[in-house]
Design the sequence.
């Protein structure tokens, strides 16, 4: 049986498509979604690919909903530094991620992509800077930090997303509960100033933290479903439904 590309309502993953199918999809909609994850610890209770799993699912959902092409996932990002090592952690430097994305976007632009949508769930400033400074010849680049959405009304013990926290853990309990060990979750809070310094790369995750920052003990699958739905709705309206020329997500 010959393969005719993804059916309507299924994600359009370019790694599973033939060149003719991709060209036809770009002729209809010249956007490309690129999920950018990390291979980074989020505490003893979560898998290293937590950020990646979240943006992969969102990329698939948006691709299926809008019929937009979805690139293979970038599995590695710029990790937050820690005061102790964690088995399996794999990070790249900011300039490495930046250069790789420049190369990829350049080749995709030559094949007809006119807008790139980079989805990430990692709020580390050096990681964000690597994405925000990529350049193209003419194509538009939109960097979407999915956790930049205001979530405070959906949280109990935090006012904003942190790391391996109430947000990450809830969303993973919703998307991939088999990968979560909630019995191993440990709460570790920082002051607002410490969180700001940690995100900028000025403060390492302390040795006495299990690797997470926030209150994962308050996580639930129901909360994760609400958070995921809220993020999807905000990103959908700002990026996919009516993206004006100067919008930012």
Sequence:
């Amino acid at each position: 049986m010959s393969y005719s590309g993804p059916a309507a309502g299924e994600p359009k993953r370019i790694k599973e498509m033939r060149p003719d199918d991709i060209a036809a999809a770009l002729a209809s909609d010249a956007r490309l979604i690129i999920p950018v994850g990390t291979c980074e610890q989020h505490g003893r209770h979560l898998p290293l690919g937590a950020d990646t799993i979240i943006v992969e699912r969102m990329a698939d959902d948006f691709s299926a909903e809008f019929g937009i092409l979805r690139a293979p996932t970038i599995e590695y990002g710029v990790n937050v530094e820690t005061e102790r090592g964690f088995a399996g952690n794999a990070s790249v430097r900011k300039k490495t991620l930046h250069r790789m994305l420049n190369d990829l976007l350049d080749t995709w632009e030559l094949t007809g992509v006119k807008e790139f949508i980079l989805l990430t769930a990692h709020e580390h400033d050096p990681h964000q800077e690597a994405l925000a400074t990529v350049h193209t010849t003419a194509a538009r680049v939109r960097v979407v930090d999915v956790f930049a959405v205001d979530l405070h009304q959906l949280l109990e013990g935090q006012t904003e997303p942190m790391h391996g926290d109430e947000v990450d853990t809830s969303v993973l309990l919703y998307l991939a509960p088999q990968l979560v060990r909630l019995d191993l979750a440990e709460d570790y809070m920082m002051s607002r100033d410490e969180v700001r310094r940690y995100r900028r790369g000025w403060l390492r995750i302390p040795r006495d933290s299990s690797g997470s920052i926030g209150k994962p003990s308050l996580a639930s699958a129901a909360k994760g479903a609400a958070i995921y739905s809220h993020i999807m709705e905000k990103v959908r309206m700002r990026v996919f439904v009516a993206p004006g020329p100067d919008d930012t997500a």
